[in-house]
Specification:
Largest sheet of chain A: 6 strands, mixed
Helix content of chain B: 55-70%
Largest sheet of chain B: 2 strands, antiparallel
Strand content of chain B: under 5%
Strand content of chain A: 15-25%
CATH superfamily of chain A: P-loop containing nucleotide triphosphate hydrolases
Radius of gyration of chain A: 18 Å
Order of helices and strands of chain A: EHEEHEHEHEHHH
Distance between the termini of chain B: 173 Å
Structural class of chain A: alpha/beta
Number of helices of chain B: 19
Strand order of the largest sheet of chain B: 2-3
Shape of chain B: flat
Helix content of chain A: 25-40%
Number of helices of chain A: 7
CATH superfamily of the domain at 138-266 in chain B: Zinc/RING finger domain, C3HC4 (zinc finger)
CATH topology of the domain at 138-266 in chain B: Herpes Virus-1
Structural class of chain B: mainly alpha
CATH class of chain A: Alpha Beta
Largest interface: A-B, 56 and 37 residues
Strand order of the largest sheet of chain A: 2-3-1-4-5-6
Number of strands of chain A: 6
Radius of gyration of chain B: 51 Å
CATH architecture of chain A: 3-Layer(aba) Sandwich
Oligomer: heterodimer
Distance between the termini of chain A: 57 Å
Number of strands of chain B: 5
Shape of chain A: globular
């Protein structure tokens, strides 16, 4: 069972299933976290990757990179998680990180209406600029403080459905829905071509076609 | 182990164990320390990994960079250092220099980005700081110079002409430095020996060689110490070589600076002097202009206060002033100055304003009226006056007729007489008061009123000569009043002379 310290003792979702020996497939996904500052992106990742929670998580500088491997059915899924900094001055860096990402979690704070609006603009930006078949999940974080919520569950749910997003309210503090949201993403991701995509996801096949163009211009 | 979905049985210990944070490249995961370096690195290193759309965008970015490359790089040092900080990835490319340049461009680009967004920040005047730095300096120089002046004063006050005594006096006033340990001249660093002897500055007592000594002529020194040269007559007999004070360069510089300052404060450049002359002329001529206009008007009105010669004289004077102004402004223009300098444009402006003033104020004056015309006007006016007086008399007569009976004829006779006198006085004032004098001679020369009139006439003549037409005007008006007074008195005396006759006649008739 959950014995390794890394895997974190947090309540693992029901979707996970021991699959032991039959892991014949493995795939790697690039996942990026976006959202306004102080909504809990880093906490969410930290809970998912290390099972830890820091009450006073420091603000991320630039971006953080973490990995976590999960097994889902007969596939080993490795998440390469890019936890971006939410502060406005790092906004210009975000495209770099979500470029080529197969999955994104857009996080907002249920106590903060502005963060929800910001999340919406992130979703819009992703639809416009990220790879077209990116899997986007919307996470309403700090669900443990649901008694003082500002953003209603139904409102967010409706928005997510309209835009084809996965949606969950999570709590990095309690661990609620944290693993579930990652698992839901992993499930939604196309795993059949995951193996082929291992490198290709990061390096799209425009490799050869681009070279001559560059030479031309030089 | 395998049962755990979060099982990490792969060799990702580093990746999953360590949390990387910072300005990570999304592809090579190198920490590049700053946004600028990271974006630049990403654009450079991983450009080929982008899709076509991105590459088009990248071309645009590169073009922008190339344009920005042409700008002066203020943050060059910072940019290059940060690029070396992100060294491993930058150097792995092989064209480090190119990388650095581009990173500079990128950082610059960001600077400009911020600049466009930035509002004007806090402002701070450094004037007070400047003053606080400058004032002590000024004070230091001022006090140092003052000290030198005081010493100079004491030194020169009773300077003995004998060289031995003089040396003693000098050493008493200013202590000379002990030169025994001084081996080199402090200013030229040449060693002292028999041929190059030590000398002392007479004001600070400092040591120098003969070559480094400066000399201040005694006359100048006297001036500086504000001592009159006459008091030091014996100094005149001094030997030529002794008639100067040996100073070090610094002391001489301080004294020179003081004198320069003094001169610059007191001296006025030629341009200013000439300009002030012009201003004075302009100021002086203004009342003349007004007066000329007044005279012309008065002449046209047919008044007799001024004559046509007055007008022409004044006009001549104004013409002269205009000529002088013209010459002065030309003189200003002739003063040498740097071509294209502000001084030159100032001079041109002065000249232009002079020409304009001459044109507008002086040359636009109405011409002298024709003498015949004036005479005509005056004649007409006199006729009008006569007519008026006559009608007045007739009216008075008619009134009298209605009033009394007997005295009418005599009264009218007297009235006619006085009427002729009145017109005479008007005429005579043109001829400078000749007839009234004749008439007053009858009533006696010692009449104070007549005397006064004569005096005033003299004044008027003088004032005319001096072209002081304002005075002429007031005097003329004064004269008129006096004349009227005389006339009134004459009439009264005539009346009083006539009335007893009338009474007598009336008595006789009765």
């Amino acid at each position: 069972m959950a014995t390794t310290p890394r895997s974190g003792g947090a309540g693992s979702g029901t979707a996970q299933r021991p699959n032991g020996t039959s892991q014949n497939k493995s795939c790697q996904f690039k996942l990026v976290l976006l959202g306004e500052s102080a909504v809990g992106k880093s906490s969410l990742v930290l809970r998912f990757v290390k099972g830890q929670f820091h009450e006073y998580q420091e603000s991320t500088i630039g971006a953080a990179f973490l990995t976590q491997t999960i097994c889902i059915e007969d596939t080993v899924v490795k998440f390469e998680i890019w936890d971006t900094a939410g502060q406005e001055r790092y906004h210009s860096l975000a495209p770099m990180y979500y470029r080529g990402a197969q999955a994104a979690i857009v996080v907002y704070d249920i106590q903060n209406q502005d963060s929800f609006q910001r999340a919406k603009t992130w979703v819009k930006e992703l639809h416009k600029q990220a790879s077209p078949n990116i899997v986007i999940a919307l996470a309403g974080n700090k669900a443990d403080l649901s008694n003082i919520r500002v953003v209603e569950f139904d409102e967010a749910k409706q928005y997510a459905e309209e835009n084809g997003l996965l949606f969950m309210e999570t709590s990095a503090k309690t661990g609620m829905n944290v693993n579930d949201i990652f698992l839901a993403i992993a499930k939604k991701l196309p795993k059949n071509d995951g193996a082929n995509n291992q490198g290709g996801s990061i390096r799209p096949n425009g490799n050869e076609t681009n070279r001559p163009t560059n030479n031309c211009c030089k | 182990m395998a049962s755990n979905p979060f099982d990490s049985d792969e060799d990702q210990s580093a990746a999953s164990g360590e949390i990387l944070e910072g300005f990570l490249c999304p592809i090579c995961r190198a920490d590049l320390k700053s946004i600028d370096v990271l974006t630049d690195h990403f654009a450079r290193q991983h450009a080929e990994e982008e899709d076509t759309l991105k590459s088009v965008f990248n071309i645009f970015v590169k073009a922008k960079k190339k344009i920005l490359n042409n700008f002066e790089d203020e943050r060059g040092a910072a940019g290059s250092s940060s690029s070396t900080a992100g060294g491993p990835s930058a150097n792995s490319n092989g064209n480090g220099a190119d990388q650095r340049v581009l990173s500079n461009a990128r950082s610059r680009f960001n600077v400009f980005n911020y600049m466009s967004k930035q509002q004007v920040g806090a402002e701070c005047s450094h004037f007070e700081y400047f003053q606080s730095v400058r004032n002590p300096r000024l004070e230091r120089y001022a006090s140092e110079t003052n000290k030198l002046i005081i010493r100079l004063h004491r030194l020169l006050k009773d300077l003995p002409s004998d060289s031995v005594q003089r040396k003693q006096h000098e050493q008493q006033t200013v202590a000379w430095l002990d030169g025994s340990s001084v081996k080199l001249c402090p200013s030229c660093a040449k060693s002292f020996h028999i041929a190059r002897r030590q000398h002392h500055c007479r004001l600070c007592g400092g040591i120098m060689c003969n070559d480094c000594s400066k000399f201040l002529a005694l006359e100048n020194a006297m001036q500086l110490a504000s001592l009159s040269t006459s008091r030091s007559e014996p100094l005149q007999q001094m030997h030529q070589g002794d008639r100067a004070i040996r100073l070090c360069e610094h002391c001489l510089w301080l004294l020179d600076t003081r004198q320069d300052m003094h001169e610059s404060r007191t001296c006025r450049p030629l341009l200013v002097q000439v300009y002030e002359q012009i201003r004075q002329l302009q100021k002086d001529v203004t009342p003349d202009l007004d007066m000329y206009l007044k005279i012309i008007n008065s002449l046209h009105e047919g008044e007799t206060i001024f004559t046509i010669t007055d007008a022409s004289a004044l006009r001549g004077k104004i013409g002269q002033v205009a000529e002088t102004m013209d010459m002065r402004s030309k003189r200003i223009l002739a003063i040498y100055c740097e071509p294209g300098s502000r001084e030159e444009s100032l001079k041109k402006a002065i000249r232009l304003s002079c020409i304009q003033a001459i044109k507008e104020r002086m040359l636009s004056l109405p011409p002298l009226p024709d003498e015949a015309l004036i005479q005509q006007i005056q004649e007409r006016k006199r006729m009008e006056t006569e007519q008026r007086i006559l009608t007045e008399q007739r009216m008075a007569m008619e009134a009298y007729e209605r009033y009394g009976l007997g005295a009418t004829i005599i009264q009218s006779g007297g009235g006619l007489e006085s009427g002729s006198f009145a017109q005479g006085s008007d005429l005579q004032s043109i001829n400078n008061w000749s007839a009234p004098q004749a008439s007053t001679s009858k009533s006696g020369l010692d009449d104070p009123l007549i005397e006064q009139i004569n005096i005033i006439k003299g004044y008027i003549k003088q004032a005319r000569q001096d072209m002081n037409f304002e005075v002429v005007e007031t005097l003329e008006l004064n004269l008129r009043e006096l004349q009227r007074e005389v006339y009134e008195r004459q009439r009264k005396s005539q009346n009083s002379a006539a009335s007893p006759e009338v009474e007598q006649q009336q008595q006789n008739q009765s």
